[in-house]
Amino acid sequence: MSDWTTLVSAEDLAAQLGREDLIVIDARAGLADPDAGEAAYAQAHIPGARYAHLDRDLSDHRKRNAGRHPWPDAADFTAVLQRWGVTPEHQVVAYDHGDGALAAARVWALLRLLGHRRVAVLDGGWQRWSALGLPSDAERPVPTPSQYPGSFDQRRLLDADAVRAHLDAGKLLIDARAAERFRGEVEPLDRVAGHVPGARNLPYAQNLRDGRFKPSDELAQGFAAVMGDYAPEHTAVMCGSGVTACHHLLAMEHAGLQGAGLFMGSWSGWIDDPSRPIATGEA
What we know:
The protein is α/β, with parallel strands linked by helices. It has helices at 10-16, 36-43, 74-84, 104-113, 125-131, 160-168, 179-182, 216-227, 245-254, 266-270; strands at residues 7-8, 22-26, 50-51, 91-95, 119-122, 157-158, 172-175, 200-201, 208-209, 212-213, 235-238, 261-263.
């Protein structure tokens, strides 16, 4: 049986539906309407898929000053995995509407940073699955609860203070937001526009072509153009709230660039403290 650790095609996943060791997670989300993804799931989803709500299951809104989608504690996320019936031995595949940014890559990153190896994102998501006419239904599975012990690799999870220290040490921070948001020309979601001084910009959309991830060699070239001589372990990624930045972690691993860190609160967490510096314009 195949092991998928970064991406899986719709065709390959469809051929393996029904595997006892396979669990599919529907992570469709919408920033404008937080419940839009769950409503879509109720209409139709990949057979057997559990639903992951970005705010309830993949974030911890009890935390303050940690951005719009605070990273959950391991105990809370493993409780979610247990409710879904996931064990460390399962092959997990996550999908969202299309490109993986909302919020399939977040599921992937949460599991990967727990040390779960066999987790992948459905390349092209629900959009491509539907376009191919692959199976769907509206049944909600009733999983058998599991046991999932684990803790996150804290070395790869950075808060705002750790990001300051990271930059002060001469390391690299990559911002995955669109270029106009990075430059501070527009800000549709957060109360202040701009970027963390010292960050470089690589919009996550540049990982994609026609709604799917570029081949691994092209991804490697794209990151090399921004990273230069920086090693992945000396690189951290961010976005607006720590969700789409996970797209970079996934793309980097698919390109063979393993070990980058995540600024959990990202831009929305950085500006929670008005004393932190803000830059605008190009990097």
